[in-house]
Amino acid sequence: METRIVTQLLTCMEGAAYSGSSNKPTGHVLVIGATNRIDAIDSALRRPGRFDREILVGIPDESAREEILF
């Protein structure tokens, strides 16, 4: 990821947690990201309080693919 994109994403994520100029927490904010190249994600995004939980979604087997289609 390019540095400017990472910086912008971090700024947006930080801003989403606080309301306007009052700097008071807004409550719970859930941000979900997806990638097929976890090694390409900047470590600043993967630290606690950001994208700190990873859930592996594997490739579906044949029966699961059929279930998805029908």
UniProtKB/TrEMBL annotation:
One of its GO terms (molecular function) is ATP binding. Residues 2-58 form the ATPase AAA-type core domain. Keywords: ATP-binding, Cell cycle, Cell division, Nucleotide-binding. GO terms for biological process: cell division. It holds the Pfam family AAA. Belongs to the AAA ATPase family. This is Cell division control protein 48 C-like. The lineage of its organism: Eukaryota, Viridiplantae, Streptophyta, Embryophyta, Tracheophyta.
